[in-house]
Write a structure and sequence with these properties.
single chain, alpha/beta, 4-stranded parallel β-sheet, 5 helices
Length: 202
Amino acid sequence: AEKLNITNVQPHLGTIESINLPPNSIDAALLVDAYHEFSHPAEMLQSLHTALKPGGIIYLLEYRAEDPNVPIKPLHKMSEAQARLELESAGKAFGFPYTIVRPSLTYGDDQIPLVLNAWAHPWTAIDRMRRDAPVIIPGDGTSLWTITHNTDFAAGLIGLLGHPKALGEAFHITSDEALPWNRYFELTAAAAGVAAPKFVHI
């Protein structure tokens, strides 16, 4: 934030049971791929509820457990039923509103959205293609998938923030175009200037 001269971001250290924020101090809480990591989820939700201002909302974003093709370990996914059960139970106990938002495979300008790719070093897939090294595609590569640029996801998310009709609902924000993995890899290879990439289906 300092390097980018962003002044409206403040780091804050909590504990495994509390976010350690004063009561009535935040307008909303956005939990992105985080709730499933809580060792004390009930305590954290109660802490969030205490910190929310009147009318504040908790937004939960998790990868979809219902879809086995999501390239995330099952431990790091949540189903809509799980999320609803958790938040509805807490909502009844603490009386706070919530909205569940689930993304598809979301990427940015510095990421290449290929399954089995090194997410922290996405350029490695391009490097392998250009070196004529094999690149793995899961299964036969025909399973359909949707990917979403983070700016498009943000547009959908912002539309939900503070919207009264979003309370108690679950939303899946994704692209309206579904392509097989083979096509995503072919398009990536073409963009990288590789005419005949070596793909291996496993």
